[in-house]
Specification:
The structure holds two protein chains of two kinds. Chain A is α/β, with parallel strands linked by helices. Chain A folds into three domains: 187 residues, Rossmann fold, CATH 3.40.50.970; 168 residues, Rossmann fold; 171 residues, Rossmann fold, CATH 3.40.50. Chain A contains 25 helices and 18 strands. In chain A, the strands form three sheets. Chain A has a six-stranded parallel sheet, sandwiched between helices. In chain A, helix 11 runs parallel beside helix 14 and helix 16 crosses helix 23. Chain B is α+β, with helices and mostly antiparallel strands. The longest helix of chain B is centred in the middle third of the chain and has 14 residues. Classes of the chains: A alpha/beta, B alpha+beta.
Chain lengths: 597, 190
Amino acid sequence: MTAATAAPTAVETPTMTGSQVVLQALVEQGVEVIFGYPGGAVLPIYDAIFQQDRIRHILVRHEQAAVHAAEGYARSTGKVGCVLVTSGPGATNTVTGLTDALMDSVPVVCLTGQVPTHMIGNDAFQEADTVGITRPCTKHNYLVTDPANLARSIHEAFHVARSGRPGPVVVDLPKDILMKPAPYLAKDAVRHRTYHPPREPEMRRIEEAVDLMARAERPIFYVGGGVINAGPKACAILTELVRETGYPITLTLMGLGAYPASDAQFIGMLGMHGTYEANMAMHDCDVMINIGARFDDRVTGRLDGFSPQSKKIHVDIDPSSINKNVAVDVPVIGDAERTLEALLAAWRRRGNTVATGRTKSWWGQIQEWQTKKSLRFRQGKDVIKPQYAIQRLYELTRERDVYITTEVGQHQMWAAQHFHFDKPMHWMTSGGLGTMGYGFPAAMGVQVAHPEALVIDIAGEASWLMNMQEMSTCIQYRLPVKSFILNNSYMGMVRQWQDFFHGNRHAESYMDSLPDFVKLAEAFGAVGLRATKPSEVDDVIKEMIKVEKTVIVDMVVDRTENVYPMIPGGAAHNEIKLSPEEDGPHEAISEEGMVLV
Amino acid sequence: MAQPVPQSSQALFSDAEQAAEERHTIVVLVDNEPGVLARVIGLFSGRGYNIDSLTVAEIDAARALSRINIVTTGTPLVIEQIKNLLAKLVPVHSVQDLTVEGPHIERELSLVKVIGDRERLVAALRIADFMHARLVDSTPESFVFEMTGTSEEIDSFIHLLEPVEVSRAGVVAISRGRLLLKEREQAPEP
């Protein structure tokens, strides 16, 4: 049995039901909001929710959206997001959200109902093997089969979700456990038996890292979402360290906002659709300082062509991320905040200062790459370029407290390229799993956490339709989420790949029979706006900001635009392609590259 | 139990694919809770790693601890991944790579059945005697032998005996000398 068999000896009167224990544990864990959907197996918890006012419940319209909303809530606050769904289909509908949270290291606790313990295994109505199904898509999961373990399991779930590399945890709750009397165990009375990931880096490694950094002639900081997960303080220390070294920094898709985009040392996002200068600098650097990034295939390109001359420092809280894809020279296991603190202290202790002389020619090279202006696009008079729409959205909202979520596809990459983030936790996108349908419910979760903020889902029409039922949720809770749909009537990224790699054959990537998004908004009781010409873009954006309601913007954009720059599958960083207007016609992709996703 | 590694499941185009595969014996101390074995097996199948042998049994009932012995093959990078991923599982107390940490003992138990006429059985008994296997069941037409030894010894016993049915327990292993598998240990260093 679980570690919890060492049941509390001095239990006070078990006058609470299992459901009340669950709620009490959530309150003690700091939960203020639950995103959920009721059903037979969780009715006892819903009954307990009805009879209290400490936790607010947001009724979503699909369980997948509940998890994405909890992710948005978690990523914009740094707290653990909380989900409540019923057994069977309720639980199976969460699988995409849980996998998304696992891939992007988002702390979420998902409570699932289950059929009563005596019926488990009998193919009961709405029974599913939830712990079996969610085992590979959670950081950990629990099936509570004894009321004595209930409080402990919930507290442990929160501990596991937020400690180390954060992630989703499922607690499966059979209905009889929720209805029986159960002892309550306070949070502080629970200490996890095994799971205590180390936070402090090894000092020996810190010294090795600073040795390399101090001698570097072509250094680069390569920083990912781990620093954002470590918190705003980690981001502030990172900014200090980068400024004190004077080295260039590039951020991953997940890391945007960890360092101010407006700073001159920031050379843009890297990876498949990163800037020319960031990818070239990664390829040519002599010391790479990776903090909280995981050498994802979208970042590295072809591994044997990945940054061949560099010594690599890799800071990660997850030992299994180190030496997984790329062998590194200095592995540092630790929390990003503690490690950055230690690196900064060691850097200062040695009296290192901004290395103007040592890195002068390197910066000269980077500035030369920057003259390529790899994100450049040409906005004409008639058709709205999607990049232009995002650029205007950025310009017209930059004075505000604005949070951006995205769906997945071309619009996501353009948002990453053309919307700039100076603060962490204001950018929520599905990086690892690439979940179409993520952005709208995630924006909903962000808006719940920040009722006064401007929350915008930069979307494509295809992705947005995947979770559009959440319009109803937004209206019910008066969440003024803005869906900024770049409508090109295509699954744009699919179409782009078909253009490049499949002879322009657009198999099933055309979006036929799209709804009239303005009327759709009105049908839900929201506001719909449309722009079809570049001259209308500013007015529509201003109107969208002004309306204190849920808004759908139908931004009708150029249908043939592609995302550049691009490192094709199976290519190395220095084989990056610029827009054909800049770069001439492209060669066909290699056979090996074709099999890559 | 062996799972073939799909060619493309590992890091694409990495040097790891060219590196030679090594056989490692890894022992894992876990909470004996429902699903813990599924977590370990799922880790291997989900990521396309090999399991050559796997044994598991409770070793401390009072503290509800089980010990899992895994024999696996992979490139050095893959072996390191396996250890780190095992250590990351929540109910895992510690992970020890006996192949790296020094001399250790590996043993396996097997039950081996032979069927045939008297002549065949007598021949089998001679081989069993010579290999230090034990006769644990006999009928006029059949013998069952119990043989304990290294996997290689059992391999050669089976090779010599040509039995009709074989049941093997998988490898159990323990380090030599004073080295102990600690109950609570943080993730091993890469």
